[in-house]
């Protein structure tokens, strides 16, 4: 049986909302959470979350995010009102790049789309954005918060390199990909929140790496259905596991040990991120709400003994909005 505790180097795995049993939230918290704009998931809710004066481009970004990155959508709803539209634009930009790989049949077409976004970012910083909804909203965010161009370009460059259908050679290569995509996204979110702090940046780096690792794990069944495996080869070889084992949804101990090792690394990054908790400005905490969803997945995969193909891992967490609201109320990450 695969190890029952994630990460021998990081002690027993304690998942779930941090401190939830120690302090009771106020009565009626669930009712208040349900009243958050957009949690119902309807088009009317999207319009409400945008505000009565919201533009069509703003609503486009919100709807794109709600459909393609629901967890990111929920996290963005809990940001301060003056940061929300910029966060939606930033995450919609990330969605546009992320879906290129699965929406093209030839790498050449994917490269052309990446080049479009690279030129779009150049045009945004020249105050000449193309008439594309995400580009227009991203331009507004850049103007409003003076966002660093380098982070946007890093996301594009890394997504472009990832167009090749090649597995990661080792966990470090996966972490590097996560740093240049997910962590860059968090650095920009911190800028939107007006946070300039070294400890917050360190936490963002580790949370982004954890996000990238968990995303890779969560996508494994989907990739397997398309005859693709992207899990780090070095860890697979260490346990004598082949790509074919994942394509056949083999549930042997050595296959689960591969997943255990990868999940342990994600958990370790979360632990490192939280080691900066007392030094990170409270203003930065909303940027890190995604740790709730990360912990939820790591807890579930532990409960099924690291069976990456277990049906329960594909089920939507209906309590996620409440969990995010509680975490936001507690001002923790």
Automatic annotation (TrEMBL):
Subcellular compartments: Mitochondrion inner membrane
Pfam families with a match to the protein in the record: SQS_PSY
UniProt KW keywords: Membrane, Mitochondrion, Mitochondrion inner membrane, Transit peptide
Cellular component aspect of the GO annotation: mitochondrial inner membrane
UniProt-listed GO biological process terms: mitochondrial respiratory chain complex I assembly
PANTHER family membership: NADH DEHYDROGENASE (UBIQUINONE) COMPLEX I, ASSEMBLY FACTOR 6, PTHR21181
Family: Belongs to the NDUFAF6 family.
Function: Involved in the assembly of mitochondrial NADH:ubiquinone oxidoreductase complex (complex I) at early stages. May play a role in the biogenesis of complex I subunit MT-ND1.
Name the UniProt record assigns to this protein: NADH dehydrogenase (ubiquinone) complex I, assembly factor 6
Species in which this protein is naturally found: Acinonyx jubatus (Cheetah)
Organism lineage: Eukaryota, Metazoa, Chordata, Craniata, Vertebrata
């Amino acid at each position: 049986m695969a190890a029952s505790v994630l990460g021998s180097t990081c002690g027993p795995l304690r998942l779930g909302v941090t401190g939830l049993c120690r302090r009771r939230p106020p009565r009626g918290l669930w009712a208040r959470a349900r009243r958050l704009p957009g949690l119902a998931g309807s088009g009317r809710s999207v319009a409400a979350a945008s505000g009565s004066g919201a533009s069509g481009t703003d609503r486009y970004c919100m709807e794109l995010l709600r459909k393609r990155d629901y967890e990111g959508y929920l996290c963005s709803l809990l940001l301060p009102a003056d940061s929300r539209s910029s966060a939606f634009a930033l995450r919609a930009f990330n969605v546009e790049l992320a879906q290129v790989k699965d929406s093209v049949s030839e790498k050449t077409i994917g490269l052309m789309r990446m080049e479009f976004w690279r030129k779009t970012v150049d045009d945004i910083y020249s105050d000449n954005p193309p008439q594309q909804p995400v580009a227009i909203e991203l331009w507004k965010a850049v103007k409003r918060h003076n966002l660093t161009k380098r982070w946007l370009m890093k996301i594009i460059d890394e997504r472009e390199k990832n167009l090749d259908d090649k597995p990661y050679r080792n966990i470090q290569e996966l972490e590097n990909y996560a740093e240049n995509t997910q962590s860059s996204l968090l650095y920009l979110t911190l800028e939107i929140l007006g946070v300039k702090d070294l400890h917050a940046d360190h936490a963002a780096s580790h949370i982004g790496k954890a996000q990238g690792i968990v995303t890779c794990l969560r996508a494994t069944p989907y990739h397997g259905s398309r005859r693709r495996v992207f899990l780090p080869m070095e860890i697979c070889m260490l346990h004598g596991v082949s790509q074919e084992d994942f394509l056949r949804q083999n549930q042997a101990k050595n296959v689960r040990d591969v997943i255990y090792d990868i999940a342990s690394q994600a958990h370790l990054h979360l632990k490192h991120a939280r080691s900066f908790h007392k030094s990170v400005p409270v203003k930065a905490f909303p940027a890190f709400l995604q740790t709730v969803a990360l912990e939820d997945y790591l807890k579930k995969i532990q409960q099924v003994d690291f069976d990456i193909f277990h049906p329960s891992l594909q089920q939507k967490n209906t309590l996620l909005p409440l969990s995010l609201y509680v975490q936001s109320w507690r001002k923790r990450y």
